[in-house]
Amino acid sequence: MTLKVNNLQCIRGGRELFSNLSFELQASQLMMLEGRNGSGKTTLLRALCGLYIPDEGEILWQGERIQKQDEAYRCELLYLGHLNAIKADLNVLENLRFNTLIAGETVTDDALMAALDTIGLYAFEEHLTRQLSQGQKRRVALARLLLSKARLWILDEPFVALDVAAVTLLQTMIASHVEKGGMVILTTHQEVPLTSGKIKRLSLNGNSLDGGREIGHA
Amino acid sequence: MLSAFWLLLKRDLLLALRYRSEIFTVLFFFIVVISLFPLGVGSEDKTLKQIAPGVVWIAALLASTLALDRLFAGDYLDGTLEQFVLAPQSLPVMVLAKIVAHWLLTGLPLVLVSPVVGLFYHLPVNSIAVMMLVLLVGTPILSMIGAIGAALTLGLRSGGVLVSLLVLPFYLPVLVYGSGAIASSMVGGVSIQPYMLLLSAFALLAVIFAPWATAAALKISLE
Question: Do residue B88 and residue A74 have CB atoms under 8 angstroms apart?
Fold first, then answer.
């Protein structure tokens, strides 16, 4: 299981965000994407999902371009962006059920309830999500991670709006996914402690001439 | 593939039932526009019968564009649309589910309320039946073409007005065949069959192409 990026270049609004960006990610690896605001972190994550077509370069999953694989790649992928992708007028359980089923997973209601208990939304199942706080809405979105069979998680600022307990929980979830042989790419300022597996760091802070640089492994 | 269709259809209908005002705005707009004409042109029997086919269809076209900007806007704003594109499902099938839900909520009510129009305009019973039939075949076309426009203008600031300008010219065949059928039903000895066949052909064409075109437009809008 490999994700390989070759000489990627993205230009937005006439400004080059990064160019000649190359890296490779293996199973049991976690990649932390670093960079100041506007350095192209989100654009890179969206390009890795296939939501954004890069101007140059290619993204390979198992050695094949992601645009060619289409559904096969999307089965392996779980993306959580800035937006929670939950409907305000559905309740917590309905949201989670819909999000899980549309992602091609099969789940029972018991599994859904168990996931909601784990994520700390016990007794909130019947609440409309419009009545929840920002942090609770984020938890509804994150509950998907517990039910997904996707091997590649791409998370854009997953810790935003979460309280201390939820941050710890999410760190454990990410760490255990990596330890089980999964891959995670995330942008955050929060460290994720791993007992096994490897943390890679990629910084997009380089000037536009040398683009993104890989700044070592931990 | 089919499960994604039902899943999305059920979700959209459930959301609409929780937030009913959207269904009624379109329906009341249709009724109000139609009832303005007799007040404006006078209640002479002959005049009303003459303008009825055109008025019904123009009101239907305008009512349909009214609801278009909401077709994808909600899912776009809360990030759900992004997840549809990334889901391991066929995007055109999901788009079709959204269009069908949209038609059930905004097109079908127009068909069901149209006999009331017949009363305003003194239409004979068989013309009312024809009117319901052509609306039943024609309004899905409006939703299909409208979906392409809604997807193309997604995320633009003045999307609502732009989408009307964009799709109304493409509604012309529906307007011409649809009102033609109603008008000819009021003239003895003229068959409505050619109009119905053309309208049905247009509907089939829309079903085949609109979901794919809309899916492609959505991907562009999300970039």
Answer: yes
Distance from CA of A81 to the nearest CA of B (A): 8
Comparing alpha-carbon positions, the chain A residue that sits nearest to B11 is: A98
Question: Which helix (H) or strand (E) element contains residue B203?
Answer: helix B193-222
The residues in B 41-60 lying below 8 A from A, measured between CB atoms, are: none
Helix, strand, coil share (%) of chain A residues, nearest 5:
35, 30, 35
What lies within 8 Å, CB to CB, of B144 at 6+ separation is B99, B203, B206, B207, B210, B211
10-residue mean pLDDT profile of chain B (223 residues): values are 90 90 88 91 88 93 89 92 92 95 94 90 92 95 95 84 91 94 87 93 95 95 88
**How many helices (H) and strands (E) in chain B?**
11, 0
| Mean pLDDT within A141-145 | 93
- Per the DSSP assignment, residues forming a β-bridge with A18 are A10
Query: Strand A183-187 vs strand A198-203: parallel, antiparallel, or unpaired?
Result: unpaired
Contact A87 B80 (CB under 8 A): yes
Question: What predicted TM-score, i.e. pTM, was given to this entire model?
Answer: 0.91
B135/B156 Cα distance (integer angstroms): 31
Which residue from B minimizes the CA distance to A95? B11
Structure-token match 């995320």, residue found: B155
Radius of gyration of chain A (CA): 17
Helix, coil or strand: residue B149: helix
Contact between chains at A77 and B223 (C-beta distance less than 8 A): no
Q: Are B151 and B91 in contact, with CB atoms under 8 Å apart?
A: no
For A121, phi then psi, to 5°, come to -115, 30
In chain B, which among 174-213 make CB contacts under 8 A with chain A?
A: none
CB atoms within 10 A of CB B158: 10
User: Closest residue of B to A97, CA-based?
Assistant: B7
Mutate to test the interface with B, among A71, A102, A131, A138 (most CBs of B within 10 A): A102
Q: Which residue has the tokens 């000819």?
A: B184
Angle (CA) A135-A138-A143 rounded to 5° is 125
Chain A contacts of B5, Cβ < 8 Å? none
Look up the ipTM and state it. Answer: 0.87
pLDDT, tens only, B134-192: 999 999 999 999 999 999 999 887 777 889 899 999 999 999 999 999 999 988 778 88
